[in-house]
Design a protein that fits this description.
With 409 residues, the protein is an alpha/beta fold. Helix content is 28%, strand content 28%. The chain has eleven helices and 20 strands. Helix 10 (327-343) links the parallel strand 17 and strand 18 (345-355). It is globular and about 70 Å long.
């Protein structure tokens, strides 16, 4: 299967860049954009190695070349030269594994093993679901290096299965995929059913073949645990519930009623199954679980009109701003959503508001939520602001995308 993929060119692409780009690379930025290149020795293929020099022809970095992406080179090694091979990849992976050792104490076998740029492997994510690993690529430049990455992963983790996931842009460039397909098994066999795993000793399922991202939103683990600690005796509304992560945590925390709201009926069915997986816990068994399928903005209006209120309202929407020109609209959407959420929150209740839009910085997001609350005369008293979990580290500004606010209103 991987034998059909051509090896990267043995000859390195020499690239000379602008002074401004050089300053960014020296500070550890993992991306070199196409418009920062002054000249290069030849036009390579995705996955060729590019060596970057400053205006004085001094070595700056080496990385993966991708002629089809505005991020022309994804930096692997900066400031000091290195041989990029299987041994180098394995060393990076071993460092990432060491960083995540504390998670073993939480009875979790579902977590992010490699967080792209933030673990030194730009454009590559590996998520673990028990003994099934999902390798998701965001650049064609990784295709020629898959064999080395798999060898490194197998040497460290002995996975029973490794599933390949490709982002949408990559799937449109079949000539550089060499027969690879989204969802196929690179190691073992493709699972016919969702894969079960543990997160803080709660059982969940992940559709690693067809599910969003790699099958589950692992980045909210710590925030889910925070909700659990606040849920005893409460009624909880989980908006944009997806497969019910926050909902199951709330139930285990002692919530009397949990309502999961999502546009996707299949996702809500998955949420119901995740509740069923944890019926050995008396709190989960006793909690009433209601499913609401439909548009969040419309259903929140209808719940308010019907006089429904909750002790805890969780607002965890998908990214509202994938591009810079969408930021203004995203902020308006966060504001509307906050007002609607407060419309069904009991006086003195807890609002949990999250954003995964990297183009909306944390300060702007928190300010937007606070001002929206003031507009409807429900000023917020902050409990806590949270950011990234241990397995989602941040090593450069654009890597900071997740922020979450816990507040009473």
């Amino acid at each position: 299967m991987l034998n059909a993929i051509p090896q990267p060119n043995e000859k390195r692409i020499a690239i000379h860049i602008t002074p401004a780009a050089g300053r960014h690379l020296r500070k550890g930025h993992p991306w070199l954009f196409a418009d920062s290149i002054r000249k290069q020795s030849f036009n390579g293929r995705p996955g060729d190695l590019a060596v970057i020099f400053d205006k004085n022809r001094k070595f700056l970095a080496i990385g993966l070349y991708d002629p089809l992406s505005p991020i022309r080179v994804r930096i692997l090694q900066a400031n000091n030269s290195a041989t990029i091979d299987r041994t180098w990849f394995q060393a990076k992976m071993e460092t990432a594994v060491q960083r995540r050792l504390p998670l073993q104490q939480s009875n979790s076998n579902g977590y992010r093993l490699i967080h792209g740029e933030n673990d030194g492997l730009s454009g590559l994510v590996i998520d673990r679901y028990d003994q099934t690993y999902v390798l998701k690529l965001y650049s064609l430049a990784w295709i020629p290096h898959l064999e080395d990455m798999l060898a490194a992963l197998t040497a460290i983790s002995q996975p029973q299965a490794v599933i390949l996931r490709l982002n949408r842009a990559m799937q449109k460039n079949e000539e550089y995929l060499y027969g690879l397909q989204d969802g196929q098994a690179l190691v073992g066999t493709q699972p016919k059913h969702p894969v079960q795993f543990l997160e803080n000793n709660i059982r969940f399922e992940a559709d690693v073949v067809h599910g969003q991202k790699t099958g589950f939103f692992l980045d909210q683990r710590d925030n889910r645990a925070k909700v659990e600690s606040l849920a005893m005796g409460k009624t909880v509304l989980n908006v944009f519930a997806y497969t019910g992560g926050f909902s199951v945590y709330a139930a285990r925390g002692g919530a009397t009623e949990v309502t999961s709201l999502d546009l996707s009926k299949p996702a809500l069915q998955d949420a119901q199954r995740n509740f069923a997986l944890n019926q050995d816990n008396p709190n989960v068994t006793q909690a009433k679980h209601e499913l609401l399928a439909g548009d969040a903005f419309q259903l929140l209006k209808e719940l308010q009109q019907a006089g429904r209120t909750f002790d805890i309202v969780i607002l965890d929407p998908p990214s509202f701003a994938k591009k810079q020109d969408e930021v203004e609209g995203a902020l308006a959407a966060y504001g509307r959503l906050t007002k609607l959420g407060l419309g069904v929150l009991k006086k003195g209740g807890i609002l949990v508001a999250a954003s995964c839009s990297s183009r909306v910085d944390a300060d702007t997001f928190f300010k937007t939520v606070s001002l929206a609350a003031l507009d409807v005369k429900r000023p917020l008293s902050e409990i806590e602001r949270t950011s990234h979990a241990l397995d989602h580290p941040i090593n450069f500004p654009e890597g900071a995308y997740l922020k979450c606010l816990f507040a009473t209103a």
